[in-house]
């Protein structure tokens, strides 16, 4: 059986931080949950098989999506309840769970994420497309990820083909009203400028609130 990755049992402080997506709230902890640069996105309970923490969060009937990064958890709600009603309960739960040393993941997502990126960059692509894909991945990791993590989400590489870059919107980025602007005026312009082969950037993982 795989060893469970567990956060250290120690006093934990948590504060809630609003994101550009009004349905998502970022809960920032003073302890590390994942290695820097690694994040996981669970759009539903079924996807959260690797994370006991996320599974527990989905037990709250208003939790619709869970995103976990280095030192924060972004929760997207599904109901009309106001965050002022939900934040105390979620903050208390997260504090108790992490302080008790509850398991965060059953398998470290870092290796899995690296393998997925490598597969996406290579696949059946030509050598030229593989090189272009790697450039895009590096730009997303170095320039885009740090910025969008501040807003409680992530934008990851999915594929590159004939000038079209497909990315996944995760956490608060999925369903965010400003996602279109971020994608087109920010990320697409950056990639076009740095990688001349890029013609367009399109997104997957978008909810009805998004594009």
TrEMBL record:
Source domain of life: Bacteria
GO molecular function, one term: iron-sulfur cluster binding
Coiled coil: none
GO biological process, one term: iron-sulfur cluster assembly
Pfam families: Nfu_N (PF08712), NifU (PF01106)
Residue span(s) of domain Scaffold protein Nfu/NifU N-terminal: 14-101
SUPFAM superfamilies: Fe-S cluster assembly (FSCA) domain-like, Hypothetical protein SAV1430
UniProt record similarity statement: Belongs to the NifU family.
PANTHER family: IRON-SULFUR CLUSTER SCAFFOLD PROTEIN NFU-RELATED (PTHR11178), NFU1 IRON-SULFUR CLUSTER SCAFFOLD HOMOLOG, MITOCHONDRIAL (PTHR11178:SF1)
Name of the protein: NifU family protein
Species this chain originates from: Hymenobacter rigui
